[in-house]
Amino acid sequence: MKIKDFPSENRPRERLEKQGAAVLSDAELLAVILKTGNKKENVIDMSNRLISKYGIDKLSFCSLKELQEINGIGKAKASQILALFEFNKRHNLAKQNGKPIKSAKDVFEYASSKLNGADKEHFMILHLDTRNRVIKDEIVSVGTLNSSLIHPREVFKSAIKESANAIILVHNHPSGDTEPSQEDHEITERLFDAGELLSIKVLDHVIVGKEGYYSFKE
What we know:
Blueprint: H1 12-19, H2 26-34, H3 43-60, H4 64-68, H5 75-96, H6 104-115, E1 122-128, E2 134-142, H7 152-161, E3 166-172, H8 182-198, E4 201-208, E5 213-215
Parallel strand pairs: 3-4
Antiparallel strand pairs: 1-2, 1-3, 4-5
Helix pairs in contact: 2-3
């Protein structure tokens, strides 16, 4: 059934205009973004299929190529989906802009929008100024963490370039379990020691899970 054949009160765009975006389901919101379906399914059915099969989290981490491999998604729709999630990430970061990092909870709130939903471990460095505001964040490694991959040279190179007053180490556990591994302990100790030698304070190492975090400092 085509969207134009729906009663007007059941069409996503018309419902949004009359009742506001908050009343729409996830699939209806995505349908408004994608606008049209294809010959085999309307845009609401397509949106329902995408969300039920892949989930919002997984969709948000797909590349343009990966999205185009999904049945019914061409380059235009893949670009719309990427733009949607990137805009949302930037919105979340804008809310944090200028806000000093005072606790591991602040680190979690800053980093979770970037790291939650990733199916691989990402090791991120937050560069801070003298007021503990984020100057820059940088991913230095993607994949299972080990001490050979996380080298102090890569971690501190950008911090020196940015004249960071301090840094915070962050990485995610895709499983959601925030308990640190032996490798996490070894990497943390190594980088804290390197920070002392370079006179760049390492304030904390925070492991981000799906709904919580682990702070080596706290």
